[in-house]
Amino acid sequence: MYESLFQATTLPILQQVVSFSQARHQVLASNIANLDVPGYRAKDLPVGEFQRQLAEAIRQRHELPALRSPGEPELPFTSRNLRPVELEDLPEILLYHDEGTKGLEYQVSEMLKNQMQHNLAISLMAHQFNLLRAAINERT
What we know:
This protein is mainly alpha-helical. The protein is built from four helices and two strands, in the order H-H-E-H-E-H.
């Protein structure tokens, strides 16, 4: 009963965003921790690929709701399918000891952007739960 109630909200989508941002946070933290290790190449999760898959899942969710079997998960992918890839080197002035062009400032800014995305998804999930709680308690 509650499963279908949750599936009718944005909670499954937000869950994927939270899972992705948690996994990406670990990768970015590893980059910062290994910044001074000779030969270490910075990695990142493919954000564009995640966004593309999420957009496709949302599109399918709206276009094909009647084609799912009962109990079939609403989103056909999970963020766990994405693997870290080495960062593409952008042409920049500085070349670091790992032969990359991504410095500490870049890693920290990406981590902060990722944290803001995570916090936003958590806030939206809390709001969805509050709405569900109000609906269950028959309050507006």
